[in-house]
């Protein structure tokens, strides 16, 4: 199975960056066709200094300390957007060239396959006509496959039935390990590493299939129907990202500036049709890891796993890893990360029915005027993201090995800590500091007090005075961007926000289907010609029906 982390990066202009077991970097030029076809990274800014392991460990410990975790600022951001962000990251960073090796591909296909684009290739792969990707599609070669959940008697007969279309399609069969049989039949297995992103991916499958049904009424069939459906889906997806997702995480003035006036710093000059986008390491390794700080330790999930429900508690983050095929094992008796690392454990091979998402608890459908789909009254704040800041919840110190491709390998316990992993990868890449990017963007950098004290985020008192001085002068970019948002009311600002908005703009511009290159296009599946939000996508995908958005129903009073 493909690992979820990269052991090397093909950085345009530098070569292949590789890291040994001690984190030392070697750089060499690509020497094979395989390496030339790799996903292409770039640098937006200069190289920066490395951070020593002692400092990385102390800073990661501060970031993941067990302290109060502020919710997102007003207006609150529904919790589903945390995992929509993860879904989008996988779309941006999916490398489709691995299975193209040895095949005849033209230059456009080659460059697109190793370039970031917001075109839902994590959902579509290379399409139903590709012999390797046909497995993701239904028999008609137009719709995408869906899976069926496994009936379970707990807590009642309402969950003791299979629900078709409410799990990802899975490999099944009898060969291999139990983990092999649970693997999802989707182009990017990373979208099954936690249950929220898995159910988000399923929603996009259902969105495509519903669009297919609607377009089929116009007489389209076969490949023409598939291509028309994909184009409509991708354009609406991009519109939703531009108008709904980005303004919730970035200062809206930055988003408006980038999409109105264009990019100022990233791949600004005119480019030929063969010059596809690259992915700046500052985005991949720093700015778009902002979402790690939005993750909660537990979620009000459905009528079963909620405060006051049959189990008496909401779904823990650990459980949301457990009930997946990539990171977990669908085994309710799993209690430790080591349990999830065991590829032979577990008797279920599809999602148990009592773990189907209630999307009303992840998004706010009252935004679309659907008060009948408002979140249940027992909510206690579990339906909003954490604020974007320098704090990560404690469960992120104990990542299951499946989340970083570590199943079956040996690694130190500190490597389960997500903050440590982020800081370490950035150091290995010699990523620019926050101050270096602020200088490049010609914006006022954060002060030493803002970096060291912040605004209710990580307390860095565990660092030595020397470490604090280095942190204030040369701040690791990921920490800088989180601190910037922390002092900016939970929105990414002139460094983190600018990097993120410009990469999104470039990725849309470089996609085969693009609203940036089609500025007069407007959505047709929302309430009006200028509105299409994530709630509109879900309403369309689930036919606006409460029993599809929440198939387990509400508690019986």
UniProtKB/TrEMBL annotation:
Gene Ontology terms describing biological process:
response to oxidative stress
Q: Where are the transmembrane segments?
A: none
What keywords are annotated for this sequence in UniProt? Answer: Glycoprotein, Oxidoreductase, Peroxidase, Secreted
For the region Disordered, give the residue spans: 148-181
- Record's SUPFAM superfamilies? Heme-dependent peroxidases
One GO location term (cellular component): extracellular region
Q: Give the InterPro entries listed for this entry.
A: Haem_peroxidase_animal, Haem_peroxidase_sf, Haem_peroxidase_sf_animal
CDD domains associated with the record: An_peroxidase_bacterial_1
The record's annotation in PANTHER family points to: CHORION PEROXIDASE (PTHR11475:SF4), OXIDASE/PEROXIDASE (PTHR11475)
Q: What is this protein called?
A: Animal haem peroxidase
What species is given as this protein's source?
Lentzea waywayandensis
């Amino acid at each position: 199975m493909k690992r979820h982390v990269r052991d090397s990066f093909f950085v345009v202009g530098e070569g292949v960056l590789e890291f040994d077991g001690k984190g030392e970097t070697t750089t060499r030029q690509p020497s094979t066709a395989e390496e030339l076809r790799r996903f292409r990274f770039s640098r937006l800014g200069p190289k920066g200094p490395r951070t020593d392991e002692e400092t990385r460990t102390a800073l990661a410990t501060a970031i993941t300390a067990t302290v109060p975790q502020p919710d997102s600022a007003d207006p609150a951001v529904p919790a589903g957007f945390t995992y929509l962000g993860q879904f989008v990251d996988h779309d941006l960073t999916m490398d489709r060239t691995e299975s193209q090796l040895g095949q005849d591909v033209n230059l456009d296909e080659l460059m697109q396959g190793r370039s970031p684009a917001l075109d839902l290739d994590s959902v579509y792969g290379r399409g139903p006509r590709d012999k390797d990707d046909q497995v993701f599609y239904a028999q008609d070669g137009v719709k995408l496959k869906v899976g069926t959940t496994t009936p379970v008697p707990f807590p009642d007969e309402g969950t003791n039935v299979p629900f078709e279309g409410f799990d990802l399609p899975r490999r099944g069969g009898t060969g291999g390990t139990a983990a092999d049989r649970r693997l999802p039949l989707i182009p990017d297995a990373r979208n099954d590493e936690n249950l929220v992103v898995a159910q988000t991916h399923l929603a996009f499958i259902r969105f495509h299939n519903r669009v297919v049904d609607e377009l089929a009424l116009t007489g389209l069939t076969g490949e023409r129907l598939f291509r028309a459906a994909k184009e409509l889906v991708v354009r609406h997806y991009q519109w939703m990202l531009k108008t709904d997702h980005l303004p919730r995480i970035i200062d809206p003035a930055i988003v408006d500036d980038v999409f109105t006036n264009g990019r100022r710093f990233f791949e600004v000059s005119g480019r030929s049709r063969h010059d596809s986008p690259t992915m700046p390491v500052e985005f991949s390794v720093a700015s778009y890891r902002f979402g790690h700080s939005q993750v909660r330790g537990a979620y009000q999930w459905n009528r079963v796993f909620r405060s006051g429900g049959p189990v008496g508690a909401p779904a823990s983050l650990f459980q949301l890893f457990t009930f997946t095929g990539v990171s977990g094992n669908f085994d309710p008796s799993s209690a430790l990360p080591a349990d999830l690392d065991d590829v032979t454990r577990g008797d279920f091979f599809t999602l148990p029915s009592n773990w189907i998402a209630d999307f009303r608890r992840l998004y706010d459908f009252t935004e679309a005027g659907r008060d009948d789909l408002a979140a249940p009254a027992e909510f206690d704040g579990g339906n909003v993201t954490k604020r974007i800041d320098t704090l990560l919840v404690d469960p992120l110190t104990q990542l299951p090995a499946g989340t970083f491709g570590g199943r079956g390998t040996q690694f130190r316990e500190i490597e389960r800590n997500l903050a440590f992993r982020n800081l370490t990868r950035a150091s290995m890449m010699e990523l620019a500091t926050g101050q270096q990017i602020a200088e490049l963007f010609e914006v006022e950098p954060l002060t030493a007090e803002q970096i060291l004290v912040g605004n209710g985020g990580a307390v860095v008192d565990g660092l030595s005075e020397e470490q604090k001085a280095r942190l204030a002068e040369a701040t690791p970019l990921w920490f800088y961007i989180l601190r910037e948002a922390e002092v900016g009311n939970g929105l990414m600002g002139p460094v983190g926000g600018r990097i993120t908005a410009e990469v999104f703009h470039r990725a849309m511009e470089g996609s085969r289907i693009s609203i940036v290159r089609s500025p007069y296009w407007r959505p047709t599946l929302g309430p009006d010609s200028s509105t299409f939000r994530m709630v509109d996508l879900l309403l369309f995908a689930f036919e606006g029906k409460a029993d599809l958005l929440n198939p387990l129903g509400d508690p019986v009073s």
